[in-house]
Amino acid sequence: MESRTFQRNIGALEAVFAFTAExxxxxxxxxxxxxxxxxxxxxxxTNMVKYSPMSEAEVRIEMIGIEGxxxxxxxxYDVEPFDMTKAPEVDxxxxxxxxxxxxxxxxxxxxxxxxIDYEYSGESRQSRITFRKTAxxxxxx
Amino acid sequence: xxxxxYGPTGTVVVSGRxxxxxxxxxxxxxxxxxxxxxxDCSGLEYISSAGLGVLLKTQKRLLASGGKLRLSGVNRHLQxxxxxxxxxxxxxxxxxx
Lengths: 141, 97
Hints:
The structure holds 2 protein chains of 2 kinds.
Chain A: E1 2-6, H1 13-27, H2 34-51, E2 59-66, E3 69-77, H3 104-112, E4 115-121, E5 126-134
Antiparallel strand pairs in A: 1-2, 2-3, 3-5, 4-5
Chain B: E1 2-6, E2 12-18, H1 23-30, E3 36-47, H2 49-64, E4 68-74, H3 76-84, E5 92-95
Parallel strand pairs in B: 2-3, 3-4, 4-5
Antiparallel strand pairs in B: 1-2
Helix pairs in contact in B: 1-2
């Protein structure tokens, strides 16, 4: 398992992506799922940045190879509960006049990942999101 | 990193990664295009929802004035994302050959 913390700002994304690529290479994880994992990590990370701006704690990302893919855990410290996995569905069939930017990220990762789970500890004010992506399950590569 | 500029044939050529950190730069460029514009995505490796937002905002603006964005050279990963997001119904998309 590999773990690293990242500053709570969008500018940290480049370092986040470098970490995911390095972890994939070191652990021999199927590179075919890297794009989807990066997508999910970015959407969750940017939501943590946007919706918990009062926290000064860094965000921790843990990655471990599993059969056919990877399990990723993202831990957000000193935050209020916000279960991103329960975000409302987006109607992607609307005509362009009715479409608005935003809200698509969580909609998309629910379709692209094998699983995604949210836990919150009120005692430690800690959110923990764990997702899995394998090359053989889930709709996106 | 992201690179976006005009190509030799007047298309907009975008390459690299269109993520949340790069979306503002892409939007600033696309805010200046007019009419019907082809965006060559053959070098675009990755797009997130922030990048989708840039494309959607630009498409809405161009359609309002009779133009549009066309996306060419779209790789399999981007095709999946466009499909899941319904963007395949909002844009003309030509897959990467």
